[in-house]
Amino acid sequence: MKKALTQLHIAVLLAGFTGILGALIQLNEIGLVWYRIAITVGTLLLAALVLKQSVRITFTQGCKLMAIGSIIALHWVFFYGSIKLSNVSIGLICFASVGLFTSIFEPLINKTSFEPSEMLLGLMSLSGIYIIFHFDSRYQTGIIMGTLSSILAAIFSVLNKKMVSQTAPRLMQLYEMAGGLLVLSLLMPLYLHYFPAGNRIPTIMDIAWLLLLSWACTIWAMDLMLKSLQHISAFTQTLTLNLEPVYGIGMAWLFFKENEKLNNSFYLGFALIALSVAIQMYRVNRKSAAKSIH
Predict the structure, then answer these.
(1) Which of 78, 98, 128, 258 is the most buried (most CB within 10 A)?
(2) For the chain, which residues make up each domain, given as ranges?
(3) What's the pTM value of the predicted model, to 2 decimals?
């Protein structure tokens, strides 16, 4: 359990850095995500070729993973759209509502009973989002996109939990990213028609940031996350992901001085989210200790 939580926290730290990279890359949200996934797919295929690893899985597994990958890709589009329309801090803090949505979707998808304590912790996180949304009208569109991103994140986390025992993490990544690439390629013309982008070709610096985003914050982070998911619940994973704003916002304040643009409602909302994470981590560690005693 401790190893799984360590892997998860490293993955969350890397995930927190994606917000910074999203602000640095000059492409719009769908272009950014398309290049991120294309680099990831190319890298995973090349690694499998060099290491002579088989990438064959059953047709049914492949279809399921590609469907999950399309949800991941859309989650990223909304996530980076939130950052582009507001700022890194707002985009990241919206991600905290994923705990509430997971507490709803996990019992529905897995046909298990609802856990009241998890619902309460999720609502605590969502209350933090509401406080920021209600008292700071500058970022409301970005907050809506960020919340949609959280809903999609909750869905794919629960679905991944069901698949992680059937397929190796690296193969899961490959098929999920391939599915995401396919869906975004089909959606790209329509998206750019309604939301035209000035920059469609990445600059040299954009390419450097995209490589870092793909190799460290996608391949490595997802590998760690999927491995940890073999030993912890989807809710624990998604609530731990609420620490992503803690790491990401700290970096945003350091790099972009965003703390100078935020008001008191942000800090109150952030405190509620941090408290929900701390309570869940305490619950997980207590359960783990009780099991080791018995």
Answers:
(1) 98
(2) 2-293
(3) 0.84
